[in-house]
Design goal:
- By secondary structure, the chain is of the alpha/beta class.
- It has 2 domains: 130 residues, Rossmann fold (3-Layer(aba) Sandwich); 137 residues, Rossmann fold.
- It has 10 helices and 11 strands.
- Strands 8-7-6-9-10-11 form a 6-stranded parallel sheet, with helices on both faces. Strands 3-2-1-4-5 form a 5-stranded parallel sheet, covered by helices on one side.
- Helix 8 links the parallel strand 9 and strand 10.
- It is elongated, with a radius of gyration of 20 Å.
Length: 290
């Protein structure tokens, strides 16, 4: 296998749950050129670690031709015909995209549903590779190694959807308790779209950091607390202990399947999680580190 193309859309978490599949491909064909079309910002993490060799943005207009009933533009068709293996994780409910492949007699085209149909999510994206004789077993791929003497506790009060967020007032209460009693400095992770006023003054702000820098800093933390979010998957990939608060989404599918990840989900609403519940779990995890 000389050249491989992966079509993988979505946000940060969607890319990170695809890492075990990428790792299987890289392990089997260490010298192949592996290219990905997807979230260019997130996929830079794959470039950095050598899992992929090139990233194209999923938002480039040229890729819209894959969803057209007409023939592909000549330049795109010539490029796509040069891949020995094409793996599609993009939505293709009516097989418009799939009908363009294979583009050469020897080309292998594999596709699966864009959203996971089994848990953990990483297992879903590894499943098509069984046709290549690649069996996934380790669905907890690490991008970094934790620091030997971690210090900070990191909180990420946001996510991609309000329904997946614990109330900010409870985050503020937890942060004040941690700042007073945990004996570790706090950091508050936030992005451009996330409010920070309620958390102001309770920890060092890590606001909208580049992902490579955030991964490095997370690896120096002793504990991460967050939701069902891409940042939580990044923290798990940094190898650090994580306490994740789940509500409407299924942790059997969407939680990072790493051994150092602990889930709290007493019900389908985040409001079912109380501050004392989280405090008890934090205290237990910090005791285990002593």
């Amino acid at each position: 296998m000389r050249k491989i193309l992966i079509l993988r859309g979505g946000a940060l978490g969607d890319f990170l749950v695809s890492l075990p599949a990428l790792a299987l491909l890289r392990q089997r064909w260490p010298h192949a050129r592996i290219e990905l079309v997807g979230n260019a910002t997130a996929a830079a993490l794959g470039l950095q670690t050598g899992l992929i060799d090139r990233v194209d943005s999923q938002h480039d207009r040229i890729w819209g031709a894959l969803y057209a009933d007409t023939a592909l533009p000549a330049g795109l068709q010539a490029r796509l015909a040069g891949y020995d293996l094409v793996i599609n994780y993009w939505p293709d409910p009516d097989r418009t995209l799939g009908r363009h492949f294979p583009l050469s007699p020897a080309q292998i085209f594999l596709t699966t549903a864009a959203l996971p149909e089994i848990g953990p999510a990483a297992a879903h994206y590894c499943a098509p590779l069984q046709e290549l004789g690649l069996a996934g077993g380790n669905y907890a791929h690490l991008l970094a190694r934790p620091c030997p003497n971690p210090s900070e506790i990191a909180l990420h009060p946001g996510s991609g959807a309000p329904a997946k967020n614990w109330p900010l007032q409870r985050w503020a209460s937890l942060a004040k308790w941690l700042g007073r009693d945990a004996g570790s400095p706090l950091v508050i992770i936030s992005g451009e779209a996330e409010p920070e006023a309620v958390m102001a003054g309770v920890g060092e702000p890590w606001r909208h950091l580049p992902l490579e820098q955030l991964l490095h800093r997370l690896a120096q933390c002793r504990l991460f607390i967050g939701h069902d979010s891409g940042i939580s998957h990044l923290a798990a990939a940094a190898g650090i202990p994580c306490l994740l608060l789940f509500g409407p989404t299924d942790p059997a599918v969407w939680a990072p399947p790493h051994p150092q990840v602990k889930i709290i989900r007493p019900g389908r609403s985040l409001t079912d999680i109380t501050v004392p519940m989280v405090r008890r779990e934090v205290e237990a995890m910090l005791r285990d580190q002593k």
